């Protein structure tokens, strides 16, 4: 964006559902809230309804910084029935009190908005990116700028960041000047002066006087860039040390933290395709694909090639996570790209008009056929927030859970399903359908826009990380040791069908299997 605009809204003639919820659970966000203890009332609820009504019933991620007595969280719970709520508060006593209310699908954490580090740690620990993030904390200028500067890292593209209670007598140019370095990360922004005949914002001390104003910012798709002058040299030294065995690689049974990838500086336009292999070989010769060498193949990879080892020297155990160890590496360390795609050294998506069945088998001697069929720049350029490319569903020999149990430990599927629904209630409907379905989007082959890849990875690594914390490994035989890899396919199937129901178009492609 190039500027922060100004709006003046009078909502005296408006009465929204949120106005009523914020009166039922008394909060000063509503001009209809009357209290003998606090007669402070803002005209925000109608404005919020105008902003959010279209997406109100979606499975959004909503966060509020500053929960006071938890009434606003109760109002958001009523207004956003399918959302996950995150409340952040400085006072441990208020957090404990809020937790005792047992609000469904709500989590709480401590935060200190005077510290950018505290803001980052609190939002990062939530392991999500937000559709809506609201600051209703101290109302102090420097703290509000802290929230914007750090919070933008945790907003999804199209997400909304709102700073409440901006004082009307403060010079608006202070905000424009302080936020100018962040303009590049937002598509638009507004200072919204809110008026209502019943609003009451008078008093003789902060924060109770004349602060009926909102700062509303809309996140764009720009990756946050933080280049360090010695970045490239450091990476070269790290790669050399890993290759030569001079530093120890720590294998993780599960992700240490599910953190947003936008905190890393890399960003490239266009599509990036990857081929995952655990063998010391270059799978195919196409300039559009980068090979990611995983597990034991990482040590012997060609000079300059990438592996599943993160910059901090850790990686997921490839024997358990299979191709997801490479996906975790790209998601965490980048480079972030507009579109990201993954193939397997033996399985590729086909763009050939000659292929229309779910899977075709091609001999390794005919590798040139694969190279000619596995990429189409025109088709891949269509990938965006409303369009993705996936492998056609594979027909199974029975229902998904029964088929899984015939090869693996059946209780693992039930555990994964329970953990997923606990974290992501909006996936429950498709999990119910999966119980009776006899086909599945398998193999984890896709081309997704980065926002969808980010969302998928959060689901994968949070749910499967929970699974790993409850199931000891190794499991006793080589096949069962890949428990997480096989479970990830069922989780991907549910995720992509849920996205399809929400409007994502699936371009289904044949899987090429190399024998």
Can you summarize this structure?
The protein is 33% helix and 23% strand. It has 515 residues and is α/β, with parallel strands linked by helices.
Strands, helices and their partners?
Blueprint: E1 5-10, H1 17-24, H2 45-52, E2 61-65, H3 71-79, E3 84-89, H4 92-100, E4 106-110, H5 116-125, E5 130-135, H6 141-151, E6 155-163, H7 172-179, E7 186-195, E8 213-219, H8 231-244, E9 250-252, E10 267-277, E11 289-293, E12 306-307, E13 314-316, H9 318-321, H10 324-333, E14 336-344, E15 347-349, E16 359-362, H11 367-373, H12 377-380, E17 387-391, E18 394-395, H13 400-407, H14 410-423, H15 428-434, E19 439-440, E20 446-449, H16 450-470, H17 483-501, E21 505-509, E22 511-514
Percent helix:
25-40%
Q: In angstroms, what is the radius of gyration?
A: 25 Å
Distance between the termini: 51 Å
What is the 3D shape?
elongated
How many helix segments?
A: 17
Oligomer: single chain
